[in-house]
Write a structure and sequence with these properties.
The protein is mostly beta strands and about 220 residues long. Helices cover about 10% and strands about 45% of the residues. It has two helices and 16 strands. The protein has a four-stranded antiparallel β-sheet, with no helix packed on it. The protein has a four-stranded antiparallel β-sheet with strand order 10-11-12-13, with no helix packed on it. A three-stranded antiparallel β-sheet has the order 1-2-3, with no helix packed on it. Helix 1 packs across helix 2 (about 120-125). It starts with a strand and ends in an 8-residue tail after the last strand.
């Protein structure tokens, strides 16, 4: 049995993420992809002292087919596919433009910090002072491979109150447009005729939700 594993070692301001093929029967590990990124900054301000996450930071993510591993670094609209020897087989590309980090996007990020960390608006805004802000948002933040071998790449987004949006690629690597999933749904599995995910209610309780998926003659 071979599976794609992710190992992350976090430091005070940076982290390393390694993707490996791990043959659990033999214990053999083969390196596929490695990324060392700035994940946060040490911040000192009027009312705050600590490490602040890098706003809109891209994070590599991966998925597997029956015989290959898929990785996207989030910085470009690309997905790289590797065989079990760690050799690059192909690159899937989507013709989508970068999304600018506007003031509206920054305001939304401040609101997200307030909701997640319980900060006041002043604390949230102060914690970002002096932190470099990216000019564009990351592209993809999650990958899934469905039972038919189609590849789903979730577009980056922080707001769990709006539907998720996924780029869908056929097994030959051709992009076939976008599909939305229900707001707040953490997609865990995509079958021939269903999407299975976890949704968390206002009390923090997890619920498993299953939605029907209707495929066209083209596959999705």
């Amino acid at each position: 049995v071979i599976t794609l594993a992710m190992y992350s070692v976090q430091g005070p301001v940076s982290g390393t993420l390694d993707f490996i093929w791990w043959d659990v029967s033999s214990g053999m590990q083969t390196s596929v992809y490695s990324s060392r990124d700035t994940t946060g900054y040490r911040a000192e301000a009027r009312r705050y002292s600590g490490t602040v996450l890098m706003p809109f930071s891209p994070h590599p993510t991966g998925a597997v087919t029956k015989t290959t591993g898929l990785v996207t670094d989030g910085r470009t609209p690309e997905i790289r596919e590797y065989d079990t020897k760690g050799q690059l087989q192909r690159i899937l590309r989507a013709a989508i433009p970068g999304r600018a980090v506007t003031q509206e996007v920054l305001d939304g990020y401040v609101g997200w910090i307030m909701a997640v960390d319980g900060y006041t608006q002043d604390q949230a805004e102060t914690s970002l002072q002096g932190i470099p802000i990216r000019e564009t948002l990351p592209f993809f933040q999650a990958l899934q491979v469905d039972e038919s071998g189609w590849i789903w790449a979730e577009l980056y987004g922080l707001d769990s109150t709006v539907p998720g949006e996924w780029m869908v690629f056929d097994p030959d690597g051709r992009a076939h447009g976008r599909i939305q999933t229900p707001a707040g749904l953490d997609v865990r599995s995509i079958g021939e005729d269903f999407i299975l995910g976890v949704w968390i209610d206002e009390f923090g309780v997890e619920h498993v939700h299953r939605y029907s998926l209707r495929r066209s003659a083209g596959g999705v």
